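Quick question, first post here. What does this chain look like in 3D?
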Amino acid sequence: MPFETTSEDFLRFLPNYLTREDKDRLADALEQFKVEKSQAWNSKLLTHFYSRNPFDYFLQGDLLRQIRYANWNAESKSFDKIYLNAIILSNTCDLDLSNQRNITKEVVLAPLTEFRRYKQKLEMRIGSGEKLKSLEDGIKAQVYSSLLYLPPAPGTTDDFVCHLDKAFWFPTEELNSYLPDLSQTRISSLDYFGYYLFLVKLSYHFCRLPEEKQR
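> Answer (accepted):
Ran it through. Tokens below.
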């Protein structure tokens, strides 16, 4: 990453159910990948990232507020219960309690950190200057496999870093109990462009096959 393919290559693989308007919006958004290798994305360029009309149920890729999380405390060598923002990694169909299964499936989430806070942690470790700026640009350019950069959602000011290497499970039944307050629980849903980028990063992080090394 960044990608060498063109937006036309991506459009060949789009599902048939997308409307012409959706395909055009996604094509326009994919043009944003066409940047010089030496340049990082500017978050203001990431249009069509979030859905304008979210559904009234949870979706794969939804950004959620204040989910209980077992946070590892390195000093005490134990887990502390905290609340953090998270993104849904599980398939949408697996979240629906009406989808009755003999073997139940729990939801898998990944933590989100406000980008300003993540940058502060990096600065404490490596200091300010060109190295910090290079890391910041690299995160926004999506070059790190374990991190997904998410620009601010409509009506919000915080951009996020998603930690794919810190994925955790959460009870599906408990998640669905939040549905009556969905507007308070969900920060935003991904639009087609954000969702396709999410899937690419998810696949690349967990299924990086072409390494030319036998393991």
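The first strand starts at residue 63 and ends at 73.
Residues 86 and 111 are 4 Å apart (CA to CA).
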